[in-house]
Specification:
two-stranded antiparallel ribbon, 368 residues, mainly alpha
């Protein structure tokens, strides 16, 4: 629709539509109910708005106490904070934040502090945001297997190029734990260096290879130190979670023992330790205990019945074994043509059947 000049420059205020009484009443009640929650929400959203108004030295002092990943998150909040943290004057803030992390390797010269922090601390693929990703130190990227396999910028085929060039090309090994690991190379680098390599003489090629090997040895040495640091952190976290699990198991066992289930737990200790509600890497809280307590009591009752059934079975087996020996001795003392009932028939007569039923009654009483 094309507006006329009169329509486009019309300054008269438009008349507002009047609300019906029912609509006005419902809106008013909603405003009364949501007044406090609305103010709180606006207050939370406006907290970071005041940060850029603070003096830079105070701001940098605060940021220097944070974890490097917190700084990455701050760069994604507002444009103002991002511009402040990415300025050259803020480099000291990133260095101080790295010092807060124990034994973290320094930032490489060819990476910004933001890129380095994101690469080493974040876990998602930088292409598709998948949680399963791997750091490609040569490519300075974190990628998942699907992305690097489908991306035409990377290749596994190097038969068409000299091995001298391939040896100094950025690469990434994927599927190291699988039966068919693959090494991916940067296709652009292969083409550019193949072209450059054939324009050089023998002396130039040797110098070029020496320079590239030195550069990549520095990159891979730093990558090795970073991988070792990441593995140490992973081992520490694994140990921490295992300590939490052990504390949880011990606390649950203690509480159940106080409820007179100690004998059952001792008889089937590994059963309670491996129970899905017990062997979790989470701290035990009162709320959790109240929630899982009935299920654990039910589980222990079942275990008790199984223990009593096993004891009963052992007693019966012992009696049957003794009876078989007596039956055999009795049979040998009789003539060959004597009629001797089988051993199973003895359970139909006293006192053998009485002994069996007595143990059965004892088992039922113990279960109850």
């Amino acid at each position: 629709m094309v507006l006329s000049d009169e329509d486009s420059y019309d300054t008269k205020p438009r008349r507002k539509k009047q609300k019906s009484k029912a609509a006005a009443k419902s809106t008013g009640s909603m405003q009364k109910k949501g007044t406090l929650s609305g103010k709180k929400a606006r207050g939370k959203r406006g907290v970071l708005k005041q940060l850029p108004e603070m003096p830079l030295d105070v701001l940098f002092e605060i940021f220097g106490q944070l974890h490097p990943l917190d700084l990455v998150h701050l760069t994604r909040t507002t444009k103002t904070l991002r511009s402040i943290l990415l300025e050259e004057s803020a480099r000291g803030v990133w260095r101080q934040a790295r010092v807060n992390v124990v034994d973290l390797p320094e930032c490489p010269k060819d990476l910004s502090e933001l890129d380095y922090t994101s690469l080493i601390f974040e876990s998602h693929c930088q292409n598709c945001l998948s949680r399963k990703s791997q750091i490609c130190w040569d490519f300075r990227l974190r990628l998942c297997g699907k992305c690097i396999e489908s991306d035409t910028r990377y290749t596994t085929e190097t038969s068409w190029i000299s091995s001298c060039i391939v040896s100094v090309c950025p690469s990434a090994l994927y599927g190291a734990d699988s039966r068919h690991p693959k090494t991916y190379y940067l296709l652009k680098f292969l083409h550019e260096n193949n072209k450059l390599y054939h324009t050089l003489d023998e002396e130039g090629r040797a110098e070029w290879k020496s320079t590239e090997l030195k550069r990549f040895s520095e990159i891979r040495d730093h990558a090795r130190r970073c991988d070792e640091w990441l593995q140490e952190r992973a081992d520490e976290r694994t140990q921490m979670l295992e300590d939490i699990r052990i504390r949880r198991v011990n606390e649950i066992v203690k509480r159940l023992t106080d409820l007179d289930w100690g004998e059952v737990i001792s008889a089937r200790k590994y059963g309670i330790e491996n129970h899905v509600l017990v062997s979790q890497k989470k701290e035990l809280t009162e709320r959790t205990w109240i929630k899982i307590h009935p299920s654990l009591i039910e589980y222990l009752q079942e275990q008790k019945e199984q223990i009593i059934a096993a004891l009963h079975h052992k007693r019966v087996e012992a009696h049957v074994s003794l009876l078989e020996e007596l039956h055999k001795s009795y049979a040998l003392s009789k003539p060959i043509n004597a009629i001797i009932p089988p051993v199973t028939s003895f359970f139909l007569f006293k006192p053998f059947n009485g002994t069996y039923h007595e143990h059965t009654r004892e088992r039922r009483t113990d279960c109850e």
